[in-house]
Amino acid sequence: MRYSIMLQVVGSMTLVLVGTGAFFAWLQNRSAPSQTIELQTKENQSRF
Q1: How far is 43 from 38, CA to CA, in rounded Å?
Q2: From CA 39, how far away is CA 43, in angstroms rounded?
Q3: By C-alpha distance, which of 26, 47, 45 is closest to 37?
Q4: Alpha carbon of 32 to those of 28, 35, 36, 48: distances in Å?
């Protein structure tokens, strides 16, 4: 009985950690293009 509870706790913690890591990786990859677009527009505005 205790072994199955331990497996549930370890499994749920693993899923939470993997899910959180995937979420932050997605956030970093998602925010990168918007920063480059902002930099490009600032460079184009400074030319005119």
Answers
A1: 9
A2: 6
A3: 45
A4: 6, 5, 7, 26
* Rounded distance between C-alpha atoms, residue 46 and residue 39, angstroms: 11
Tokens representing residue 18 in the block: 């993997």
Task: Give the separation between CA 27 and CA 13, rounded to whole angstroms.
Answer: 21
DSSP 3-state assignment of 1?
Answer: coil
Query: For residue 6, which amino acid is it?
Result: M
0.85 exceeded by pTM: no
Q: What is the mean pLDDT of residues 32-48?
A: 61
Task: Kindly tell me if the per-residue pLDDT of 23 is higher than 90.
Answer: yes
